[in-house]
Write a structure and sequence with these properties.
29% helix, 191 residues, 9 strands
């Protein structure tokens, strides 16, 4: 099957905009992206990655970034232990240790490789606690999200041939039965 890259970019951007309506990410938040360009093209993960599909996904994500002010963080494949590609300024802002490798399509994945080539000052890190993310092709980004991830449904649950899931995070709810989580629930006083 020939993948329509224009449709990949168009549908992904639609899904991201719907996600934003629910997630309401603020400027400066981190957004982790796991992508299998192989799965987008209808092939098995890790077997048929393409830079052409990566470029279409990059286009949609960069538009989304410009609209929201979020920071993009791309997950590499298991051959680089799911390290992350991001701008050096974002790594420094998050006070995370920078590691070194250069992602290439066969070790890192086509999407991470494309991001590395197109960021201004790319670096790799081993982990982050991102505020939200998207998983295109079941690459499992959960290890890089803050601890309480909440799935967000959109009308776009597939990009090309790849299954897509979106997640935002929220603070942990703490306390017991008397805990209050919103002002409208406030009752009584504490002694």
């Amino acid at each position: 099957m020939d993948t329509n890259v224009e449709e990949v970019e168009r549908s992904l951007l639609k899904g991201l905009r719907e996600f934003q309506q629910s997630a309401k990410l603020r400027e400066g938040r981190t957004f982790v992206i796991g992508t299998s360009t192989s799965e987008v093209s209808g092939k098995h993960i890790g077997k048929a990655g393409t830079e052409e599909i990566a470029a279409a996904i990059w286009g949609a994500l960069r538009t989304f970034q410009k609209e929201t002010g979020i920071h993009l963080v791309f997950q590499c494949c298991e051959h680089l232990n799911r390290t992350l590609v991001l701008e050096k300024t974002v790594a420094e802002k998050n006070n995370v240790e920078i590691v070194h490798a250069i992602p290439v399509p066969k070790a890192g994945g086509s999407m991470a490789s494309y991001a590395y080539k197109n960021f201004n000052e790319p670096v790799l890190i081993e982990q982050i606690e991102a505020d939200a993310g998207i998983d295109i092709g079941d690459t499992f980004i959960g290890m890089h999200l803050k601890r309480v991830a909440v799935p967000v449904r959109t009308s776009i649950n597939q990009v090309g041939e790849a299954h897509v899931t979106y997640a935002r995070t929220r603070p942990k709810l703490i306390g017991g039965e008397r805990a209050v989580y919103t002002i409208s629930e406030e009752e009584g006083t504490c002694d």
